[in-house]
Amino acid sequence: MHLQTVPRTITVPGRAVAADETLVRPRVNGMVTEIIYTPGAPIKQGDPMFRIESATYEAAMVQARSTVASADAGVRQAQSAFDRAQRLLGSGATQADVENAQAALDQAQATLAAADASLTLAQMELDWTTVTSPIDGMASLSNVSVGDLVTASQTTALATVTTLDPIEVDLYSPAVRLQQIQNEITNADTGVLRNLNATLMLENGVTYDAVGQFVAPGFAVSTTTGTVETRFSFANPNFQLLPGMFVRGQVAFGETSAFLVTQTAGVRDRMGNLTVWVVEDGKAAQRVVTDVGTWQNQWIITEGLNEGDQLIVDGTSMLGAGADVTPVPVTIDDAGIIHDAAPATGGN
């Protein structure tokens, strides 16, 4: 056995979720006159999706402009009266006249400010008769038809826009396992986590191309599953991942020095301890070892083995402590299958 630098990973179930999902709702009342977008097609923020009848809001806009013009004229008239009263103060106008003119000017300016605000609101409501997408994403089927009456207070959305690229995946780690990893990090066994990432395997067994970047850790343990949710973000240009899809995620969180032991060579005893057989002075000896997970069908052993130990990987079910052993060199392929080692060949 030889110490190796082994990647530390944990494989856990997960579920894809939309990075962003927005319900598209009307902000004004009226009849739907046009559905502009194509359901199931990509849409950009600000792209028009629906049109609502605008005649009422166009009329309100004209009225608001007229009110602003009238209020502006009132301000000019009040300003002129105030200026005249100031000029005539002491020669035909009293201080009371000046104060009254000032009050009239203030009132006219307030009326103009209110008219401007009403014009702004009228413009906004007219703009809102064109319902646009609030985010980039994929648009759902419409929940309304042309001719339907919609209101600003309705609870039913007109449609939904979902961001699929990037997409996020929630991975569910057992709380006990996550605590063990955190302890190892604190003890500097695996180094400091700076670039936590994850890879995915889809339900059909295919490995997803993109590597996910860490978004946020979980801060609560599920009372029903005992797991902690951790979120990663994945590029999804072809929309291969869809919200709700179940996946398996492998999270890499550093490296450690350890021995790799094929899983067929290790057995759990009744106490849950992992045990292996080694050769000591030509005899079989059983060791209790400490594992920190698996890597490529092999146990990652951090305690219980020493550099140069000979591990017994086959025929362990018939072994007893102290039994004579004649070691035969073997190799183990990536699938964990044991093969006799090829004999060395000498040259001429």
From TrEMBL:
Signal peptide: none annotated. Keywords: Plasmid. The keyword DNA repair does not apply. Residues 265-316 form the Multidrug resistance protein MdtA-like C-terminal permuted SH3 domain. It is found in: Cell envelope. Residues 24-162 form the Multidrug resistance protein MdtA-like barrel-sandwich hybrid domain. Residues 166-251 form the Multidrug resistance protein MdtA-like beta-barrel domain. It holds the Pfam family Beta-barrel_RND. One of its GO terms (cellular component) is cell envelope. One of its GO terms (molecular function) is efflux transmembrane transporter activity. The keyword Thylakoid does not apply. It comes from the Bacteria. One of its GO terms (biological process) is response to antibiotic. PANTHER family: ACRA/E-RELATED COMPONENT OF DRUG EFFLUX TRANSPORTER (PTHR30158), MULTIDRUG EFFLUX PUMP SUBUNIT ACRA-RELATED (PTHR30158:SF3). Belongs to the membrane fusion protein (MFP) (TC 8.A.1) family. This is Membrane fusion protein, multidrug efflux system. It comes from Ketogulonicigenium robustum.
